[in-house]
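stage 2 :: seqdesign
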C-alpha cells in the first residue's frame, strides 16, 4: 500500500522528481566483424530521421510540495498528504482512534472487575464504544413508521389524497368473502345511491344487486351513470333508453334486448372490480299495466308483437 500512498519513493534529498530525459545518443553498432561506429543498413542511427523518439513526459516533472506525515503502514517512512493519499490517511487515523477507545474500555472493564472481586460498589457495566450497534425491533419499527409517513405525505402532496386516490375501503370489502347475501327492498336499495356519505354505491340489474363503489366516478353523484345507482334499471340496460326506462319491468323486450340484458348481468357478475352483494325484492308488476314505450319510434311499433310472443312463451311453460 505504501507505493500507492507514495508512488514517487521516499524522496530523501530531493523535493522534485523528474522523469528520465530524452535519450540522445545510441552506440553505433554494425554487424559482427565490422568496426565500431560503422553505419549498417537497416539499423537506426542517432540523429537520423528514423531515430527512436524520447519520452514525451520528460518535460513534465511531477511536483509534490504537500506536507509529509509518517506512513501508517511502514515505519520510518513518510508519505505525502496530497489528495490521492488523504482517504487512506483518514481511515488510518479512524482505525487508530477506535483502537485507542477499545483499549481504554478494556482497561476500565478490568478495573471494574477488580472492584467487583474486592466487593466494592460499582456502577452499571459500560458497553464497548467501538461495537457496531444492532438495529433491533425498535429500530425496525421506527424505520417502518418513517417510511409509512413519507409515503402518506407524498400521496397528499402529489395527488391531494393521503391514500393516493385509492378506494381502500372498497378494496377491503372486495376481499371479504360474500357469505350470506342480503335481501334489499326497493326503498332500502335507494339509500345506496352514493348521496349519503359513508355508504357504498349499489345498483341492481334484473334483481341482482352489485357493489359498484370502485366506479364512484361513473356511478356516484355527478357520474354519467349515476341515474342507475340505488335502483334496478334492468330495462335501460336492455334497451338503452336511459332517460325513460329506469325500471325493472322487462316485459315486451325483443330477443336481442334480452340478450343485451343477459350480457350486462354476466359483465357485473364476472367483474373483478364489482361484486354481487344480494338481491332486491320487487313488488309484483300488474300484468294489465301498459308496457313502457320504447324511446325509438320504430322499435315502439314492434313492442306489442314482442309482448305477445313473451305471453305465448309463458303459456307454453
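stage 2 :: out
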Amino acid at each position: 500500500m505504501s507505493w500507492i500512498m507514495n508512488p514517487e519513493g521516499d524522496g530523501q534529498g530531493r523535493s522534485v522528481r523528474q522523469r528520465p530525459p530524452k535519450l540522445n545518443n545510441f552506440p553505433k553498432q554494425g554487424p559482427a566483424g565490422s568496426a565500431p561506429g560503422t553505419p549498417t543498413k537497416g539499423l537506426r542511427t542517432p540523429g537520423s530521421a528514423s531515430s527512436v523518439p524520447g519520452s514525451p513526459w520528460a518535460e513534465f516533472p511531477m511536483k509534490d510540495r504537500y506536507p509529509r506525515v509518517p506512513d501508517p503502514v511502514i515505519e520510518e517512512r513518510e508519505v505525502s498528504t496530497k489528495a490521492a493519499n488523504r482517504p487512506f490517511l483518514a481511515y488510518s487515523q479512524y482505525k487508530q482512534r477506535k483502537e485507542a477507545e477499545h483499549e481504554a474500555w478494556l482497561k476500565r472493564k478490568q478495573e471494574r472487575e477488580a472492584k467487583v472481586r474486592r466487593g466494592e460498589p460499582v456502577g452499571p457495566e459500560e458497553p464497548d464504544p467501538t461495537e457496531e450497534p444492532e438495529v433491533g425491533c425498535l429500530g425496525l419499527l421506527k424505520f417502518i413508521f418513517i417510511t409509512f409517513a413519507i409515503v402518506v405525505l407524498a400521496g397528499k402532496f402529489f395527488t391531494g389524497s393521503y391514500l393516493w386516490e385509492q378506494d381502500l375501503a372498497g378494496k377491503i370489502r372486495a376481499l371479504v368473502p360474500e357469505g350470506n347475501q342480503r335481501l334489499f327492498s326497493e326503498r332500502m336499495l335507494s339509500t345506496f345511491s352514493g348521496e349519503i356519505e359513508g355508504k357504498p354505491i349499489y345498483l341492481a340489474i334484473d334483481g341482482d344487486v352489485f357493489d359498484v363503489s370502485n366506479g364512484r366516478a361513473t356511478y356516484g353523484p355527478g357520474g354519467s351513470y349515476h341515474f342507475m345507482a340505488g335502483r334496478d334499471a334492468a330495462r335501460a340496460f336492455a334497451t338503452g333508453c336511459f332517460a325513460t326506462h329506469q325500471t325493472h319491468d322487462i316485459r315486451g323486450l325483443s330477443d336481442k334486448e334480452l340478450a343485451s340484458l343477459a350480457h350486462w348481468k354476466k359483465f357485473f357478475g364476472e367483474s373483478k372490480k364489482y361484486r354481487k352483494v344480494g338481491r332486491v325484492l320487487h313488488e309484483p308488476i300488474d300484468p294489465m299495466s301498459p308496457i313502457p314505450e320504447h324511446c325509438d319510434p320504430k322499435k315502439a311499433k314492434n313492442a306489442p308483437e314482442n309482448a305477445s310472443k313473451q305471453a305465448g312463451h309463458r303459456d307454453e311453460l
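stage 3 :: structure notes
- The chain has ten helices and eight strands.
- The two ends are 99 Å apart (CA to CA).
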